[in-house]
Amino acid sequence: MSACARGAARDREAVPWVAVLQIEVGCPWARSLKEKRALILPLLERWRRGYSLSVARVGGLDAHGWERLVVAAVDADRDRLAGVMAQAEAAVREAGLDVVRARLDVEPWDPLGSATP
């Protein structure tokens, strides 16, 4: 088997990893939704552009002091994916926000099954 064929077979066998990071962010000093958005939105843009992550604001949108964010990504390398998510969580603190709670789930995703056609 040629090196090219071995590489193609290995690529077909690779299972993608999916990571979902849920973060509850605290900003009790924010006195208005506008003030909170001024802190949250640059963080979301940093995640989208700097790390190519999918992000969503899913809770606390009408609350001044907290917000729940979800960050998701897919990669072929589980360790790299976990590292990127750790950097994303660290970016929250760098933005001057408190991490109240965080949960990271990294799972293999193989809807087609591991058998190659």
Key phrases:
elongated, single chain, alpha+beta, four-stranded antiparallel β-sheet, Alpha-Beta Plaits, 117 residues
Can you give the mean pLDDT? Answer: 85
Q: Look at the structure and name the CATH superfamily.
A: TT1725-like
Separate helix tally: 3
Shape: elongated
| Domain tally | 1
> What structural class do the secondary elements suggest?
alpha+beta
Gyration radius, in Å: 18 Å
How far apart, in Å, are the first and last alpha carbons?
Answer: 18 Å
Largest sheet: 4 strands, antiparallel
Arrangement of strands in the largest sheet: 2-3-1-4
Helix content: 40-55%
Unreliably modeled segments: none
| Pattern of helices and strands | HEHEEHE
CATH class: Alpha Beta
CATH fold label: Alpha-Beta Plaits
Strand content: 25-35%
Tell me what the CATH architecture is: 2-Layer Sandwich
Q: Tally the beta strands.
A: 4
Summarize the structure in words.
Strands 2-3-1-4 form a four-stranded antiparallel β-sheet, covered by helices on one side. It has 117 residues and is of the alpha+beta class. β2 (54-59) and β3 form a beta hairpin. The model has no long low-confidence stretch (mean pLDDT 85). It has three helices and four strands. Helices cover 40% and strands 32% of the residues.
How is this fold's topology laid out?
Blueprint: H1 3-13, E1 17-26, H2 33-51, E2 54-59, E3 66-75, H3 78-94, E4 98-108
Antiparallel strand pairs: 1-3, 1-4, 2-3
